[in-house]
């Protein structure tokens, strides 16, 4: 019988986060998933992962090196959705966790619901994607999911590359601030706003903008959302993740919001569109890997 879930136990996780992961794992077992314990040394060595494909990883952490642990697990399961339960919800820790590969960083009291939201959306959209794809192909109007991701006004009309000036204007931030989020120098970005080195980060921002556009509508409303205080960011606005973290951290946060925010009509649409953009994952069998950083 294949392993559907791996549980890695490591010290320093709080009792609340351990309980949250155990409850989430119990929920997954109720859906038919299997779990297996993996020791931290085995996880670091990677010996147990050669034949284990995971689409979702549950991680409970309480150490001061959350981002390092997230990076380790992300390396072991690079294609998985990494869902993290942690008491450390300050913007710096959350930003680093997203930068390291986390898809969701939630406090213990909200973690089980976050897992349910992700599994529900994945399962629902897997069926929807399959059905709609068959209909489009039959009708001769097949459309690749990546087409839903393009924000035309972000691209230079001559080269087709993403333009940092256009994106910074819509996000309402300076080019120098954007350069920091992209990990490039301000001078280099100013000289060539379509620089190849900036494209991966700009692509993350294009994804985030397209997702938010599906959810809230106009550019004005998107900017309002970006600058509104969020309880899951310790009262800080999401734009802080971009300005103080990275484009990747910010895009991952938007993904997590799509997976777990209140389901009004706009967010439901955003969930559907975001799932189409990552339909490659939805087409695979849902294997679950569970990590818990506690020895008990």
Structural commentary:
This protein has 296 residues and is an alpha/beta fold. The protein folds into two domains: 123 residues, Rossmann fold (3-Layer(aba) Sandwich); 138 residues, no CATH class. 54% of the residues lie in helices and 8% in strands. It has 14 helices and six strands. The chain has a six-stranded parallel sheet with strand order 2-1-6-3-4-5, with helices on both faces. α1 packs parallel to α5 and α4 crosses α12. The longest helix has 32 residues. The chain is elongated. The two termini are 26 Å apart.
Produce the secondary structure layout.
Layout: E1 6-9, H1 15-30, E2 36-38, H2 40-45, E3 56-60, H3 66-76, E4 81-85, H4 91-99, E5 104-106, H5 108-139, H6 164-171, H7 175-182, H8 186-191, H9 199-216, H10 219-226, H11 239-244, H12 247-260, H13 265-277, H14 279-282, E6 288-292
Parallel strand pairs: 1-2, 1-6, 3-4, 3-6, 4-5
């Amino acid at each position: 019988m294949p392993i559907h879930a791996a549980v890695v136990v490591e010290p320093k996780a709080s009792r609340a986060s351990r309980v949250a992961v155990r409850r989430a794992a119990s929920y997954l077992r109720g859906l038919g998933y299997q779990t297996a314990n993996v020791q931290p040394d085995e996880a670091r060595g990677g010996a147990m992962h050669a034949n284990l494909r995971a689409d979702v990883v549950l991680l409970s952490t309480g150490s001061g090196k959350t981002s390092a642990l997230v990076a380790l697990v992300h390396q072991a399961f690079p294609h998985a959705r990494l869902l993290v339960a942690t008491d450390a919800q300050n913007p710096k820790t959350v930003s680093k966790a997203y930068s390291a590969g986390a898809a969701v960083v939630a406090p213990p009291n909200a973690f089980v619901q976050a897992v349910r939201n992700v599994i529900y959306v994945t399962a629902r959209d897997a069926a929807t994607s399959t059905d709609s794809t068959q209909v489009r192909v039959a009708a001769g109007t097949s459309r690749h999911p990546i087409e839903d991701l393009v924000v035309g006004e972000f691209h230079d009309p001559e080269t087709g590359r993403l333009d940092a000036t256009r994106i910074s204007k819509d996000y309402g931030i300076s080019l120098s601030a954007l350069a920091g989020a992209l990990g490039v120098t301000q001078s280099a970005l100013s000289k060539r706003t379509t620089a190849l080195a900036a494209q991966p980060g700009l692509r993350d921002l294009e994804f985030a903008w397209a997702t938010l556009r599906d959810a809230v509508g106009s550019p004005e409303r998107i900017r309002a959302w970006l600058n509104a205080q969020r309880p899951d960011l310790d009262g800080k606005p999401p734009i802080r993740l971009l300005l103080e973290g990275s484009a990747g951290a910010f895009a991952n946060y938007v993904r997590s919001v799509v997976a777990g925010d209140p389901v009004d009509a706009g967010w439901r649409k955003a969930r559907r569109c975001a799932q189409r953009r990552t339909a490659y994952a939805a087409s695979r069998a849902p294997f679950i890997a569970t990590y818990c950083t506690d020895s008990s």
